[in-house]
Design a protein that fits this description.
Largest sheet: 4 strands, parallel
Shape: globular
Bound molecules: iron/sulfur cluster
Distance between the termini: 33 Å
Radius of gyration: 23 Å
Number of strands: 9
Strand content: 5-15%
């Protein structure tokens, strides 16, 4: 942690008293540690996005285009016409307050504008002013505000303090999805060149090379070859991981972090062991080398542009269906948008597991199956020889990553896999898991360093629940199925709940799966000594 990072004792002193400032007052202070840096002009230029220039949020002059106000209002009109949900969300909120204390950023900061209801009011107030008769006539008396530069700056500050996690929507009696409002807010800001570099640089890289890190095809191949070599050292078995192989049955797409970062990399090793052991006829592709999609955090159009490569590669390679790895934003896009946005994928078949014969009708439209659904099905059919004692060094809890849990309902399969690969598993408190899971505090492209204080504040409710099971049950690892979580939870836990590691589910699968012809394993996939078996299972 940086030296200037406040201590946990300081950050837990959250002041929830009213500020004395009216909510219509848009002025915000861009205090170090709470906001993200602006997108570099070269990245905006690479994507053909408007108004590339040097600027920073703390500047007085944001160098907006002369017609910025007309552009935003025209953008609002267009989106009100195109997205019925947006218009409904602008109209139906009754300010009941059920969502008010459900946002992790509000709980961690005490800033009332981080209440979902007020976050939405930032844009709703402008909607009222320009798109409703009451707002045009009565102005601030009905909560309407002029669109000023200060309002725009306020949007930037608070729409980049929302991780689009959708926890608030679970509690709204009208089903208002503040994440969708944030997405529209960010789209509008993008129209005048106001976005953050931690989102736009990965998007530009992805557009150029197919992955957020800017790794070129030969670099992708090197990474996979390295993983294959390392697996041979651990297991004595050489697996095949073909790339760009035409005629394979299945295309496997994963987040780029799986072959680049840790602890993600151990998840990749787990996939490779699994696919080898069941004899899956699959291929990777060096061109759709990242299923992750930061376009989701930019605009619907950008999401579509980046995701197109998945179906394009599936078609080029002539596979039957697609299997997707552990990634949150990738699955949000695939599950909620892909078939209508980039489809129909009529050239693919409804996925059928070649091992168990299970037909995944839930993927009849997208033709894409989540790796946890696939692996859980293998386990249920008794197709994997699993030695659970090989994970006895792990005492596991599971974090429902926001997108796979709330956006696609993937709640049981990861737990089923954990229970069949690990003997010690303890759930966090009920109101912090499943649909009510708390965000890592750094999703939607906010996992950068300059806003670390806000990340630690927003991540506190999640980390606090982890600390509870650490202290009560001795939990020492937090499992999750999201690439962003695997990157952002380690520093969060180091700060709030030291002694708890982070792991992907398929790392446990790779440890437990006994391969035909393997030599006696002395280390786990991390290169740590293999567990000494315990006597009693410890599920709870
Ligand atoms: S719960 Fe829904 S209706 Fe109530 S204040 Fe929040 S967004 Fe508005
Ligand atoms: S979507 Fe998540 S981060 Fe955004 S307002 Fe709702 S709870 Fe907060």
């Amino acid at each position: 942690m940086a030296d200037q990072t406040p201590s946990p004792e300081q950050l837990t002193r959250v002041d929830f008293r009213p500020t004395g400032k009216g909510w219509l007052d848009p002025h915000v202070e861009f205090r170090k540690g709470t906001y993200c840096y602006s997108a570099a002009p070269k990245n905006l230029t690479a994507l053909g996005l408007p108004n590339p220039r040097e600027w920073q949020p703390f500047d007085q002059d944001w160098k907006l285009p002369p017609d910025w106000k007309e552009t935003i209002l025209a953008g609002m009109q267009e989106r009100l016409d195109r997205y019925r949900s947006f218009r409904v969300f602008m109209d139906v909120c009754v300010r009941c307050g059920a969502c008010a204390d459900k946002c992790h950023f509000y709980l961690g900061s005490g800033d009332p504008k981080n209440m979902p209801v007020l976050r939405a009011e930032l844009i709703r107030s402008v909607y009222r002013r320009y798109f409703t008769a009451a707002g045009r006539l009565l102005g601030s008396a009905v909560g309407a505000r002029d669109l000023t530069e200060d309002v725009l700056k306020e949007w930037f500050y608070y729409f980049y303090q929302c991780t689009e996690c959708r926890r608030c929507s679970v509690f709204c009696p009208y089903g208002i999805d503040t994440a969708e409002i944030t997405m529209i807010g960010r789209e509008l800001l993008t129209l005048v060149g106001c976005n953050i570099n931690w989102v736009i640089e990965p998007v530009a890289n992805c557009f150029r090379t197919g992955n957020h890190l800017g790794i070129q095809p030969h670099g992708f191949k090197d990474s996979i070859d390295f993983a294959v070599d390392e697996l041979e050292e651990i297991t004595g078995v050489r697996v095949d991981a073909s790339i760009n192989r035409k005629g394979a049955d299945v295309l496997f797409v994963m987040p780029s972090a799986d072959y680049f970062g840790t602890p993600h990399y151990y998840t990749l090793l787990g996939y490779l062991i699994l696919f080898h052991e069941i004899g899956l006829n699959y291929t990777l592709t060096a061109f759709a080398s990242d299923g992750g999609n930061f376009g989701l955090f930019t605009s619907h159009e950008m999401m579509k542009r980046l995701n197109a490569k998945v179906y394009t590669e599936a078609k080029r390679l002539g596979v039957k269906w697609i299997l997707g790895g552990e990634c949150g934003h990738m699955w949000r896009v695939l599950h909620q948008y892909m078939d209508t946005m980039n489809g129909p994928a009529d050239f693919l078949q409804v996925p059928v597991s070649p091992i168990t014969g299970t037909r995944f009708d839930n993927a009849a439209s997208t033709k894409m199956v989540h790796i946890c659904e696939f692996t859980a099905d293998l386990i249920r059919h008794g197709r994997l020889n699993l030695d659970v004692s090989r994970n006895d060094h792990w005492n596991v809890t599971f974090h429902d990553s926001c997108n796979p849990s709330r956006a696609m309902g993937l709640l049981e399969e990861p737990r089923y896999i954990i229970r069949n690969t690990c003997r010690a598993f303890h759930e966090m408190p009920e109101n912090t898991i499943r649909e009510q899971t708390f965000c890592c505090g750094s999703g939607s492209g906010l996992g950068t360093d300059e806003n670390l204080e806000m990340r630690l504040r927003g991540g506190f409710p999640r980390a606090n629940a982890v600390r509870y099971v650490r202290d009560k049950h001795g939990v020492n690892v937090l499992a999750c199925i999201c690439a962003i979580d695997k990157a952002t939870l380690p520093p969060l836990l180091e700060y709030w709940s030291p002694g708890v590691e982070v792991a992907g589910i398929h790392e446990f699968v790779g440890n437990a799966l006994v391969m035909k012809g393997e030599r006696t394993r002395t280390t786990d996939l991390r290169g740590e000594p293999m567990a000494t078996p315990k006597e009693e299972p410890a599920h709870a």
